[in-house]
Specification:
The chain is mainly β. The chain is built from no helices and seven strands. The protein has a seven-stranded antiparallel β-sheet, with no helix packed on it. The radius of gyration is 18 Å and the shape is elongated.
């Protein structure tokens, strides 16, 4: 199981309309191993709430690790994020979908800013 650099992950999610929930667990491959040598089944759960404000599409998210694994050594909030998205109109028939996102990881005391465009 640990003889590969690949990680195999299962994801279960549901969109309730007002919010969505997802659960992700590494089940095979190069997952984190605990001190006793056993697979951690590293997992991550996330809740996302989309909303609109001032002509932008927003998404607020909170994610956590439920136990020791690849992302944290115990139950921890590892992601607090806010994403804003808007289509930038270039011409009447061409727009560029752009987004910006601020991500905080309270567990690692890190902050990130991401900007991107989608095609």
């Amino acid at each position: 199981a640990h003889s590969t650099a690949h990680v195999y992950e299962a994801t279960l999610g549901y969109d309730f309309g007002l919010f969505s929930l997802s659960w992700n667990t590494n089940f095979a491959g190069a997952d984190y191993a605990k001190a006793n040598g056993k697979r951690a089944y590293s997992s991550y759960a996330e809740a996302v709430v989309p909303f609109k404000l001032g002509g932008y599409d927003f998404a607020a998210e909170v994610g956590l690790t439920p136990w020791e694994g690849a992302y944290s050594n115990e139950l921890n909030v590892t992601n607090i994020g806010l994403k804003a998205a808007k289509n930038i109109v270039v011409t009447e028939s061409f727009t560029i979908p752009a987004f910006a996102k601020v991500v905080l990881n309270p567990n690692s005391e890190q902050a990130y800013f991401v900007f991107g465009i989608t095609f």
